[in-house]
Amino acid sequence: MQFQVPQFIETEDKIVGPFTIRQFIYVAAAGGVVFLLYFMVQTWLFAILAVLVLGLGGGLAFVKIGERPLIHVALAALNFYWSPQTYVWQPEQPKLPKTEETLKPLEAGGISLERIVSGAALRNIWQNLQTGTKMSNQQFFGKARERYQIFQRPSGEMEAARRIDYR
What we know:
This protein has about 170 residues and is mainly alpha-helical. It has helices at about 20-40, 45-60, 70-80, 100-110, 115-120, 120-130, 135-145, and strands spanning about 15, 20, 65, 70, 150, 160. It folds into 2 domains: about 15-80, no CATH class; about 115-165, no CATH class.
């Protein structure tokens, strides 16, 4: 017994001409708002508001960022900025008194122009912020190779993907 497997299940059907139902609703809603604005406001204000409303409606209907519709990206950004952020910092030496004499040795191995130009200082700062520990470049790149793998798509572009070993 053979079964037909549906394909392209992630593409939306074209319901109204070349538009999907979602695109049609965004464009129709923007058109309806512009129609109402024509009768409610003065001509100069109508022109400004019509461009903004039609731009917003067209953006919601047709713009995709990273293969995701603009409304999903906008809602994710709104949720990110609306929800409280938690930043956790753990000092390397919490018992060390913060005086000029104790901080000078830390500055000597810290940030220099040469290390900033080579990118090592920024990478080390980022590692320290995320993990709270210092790690050498070889350890960092070794762990990165364990977690990510570079592969080539059929189109020829290179991409890094997270590697998952099911053991």
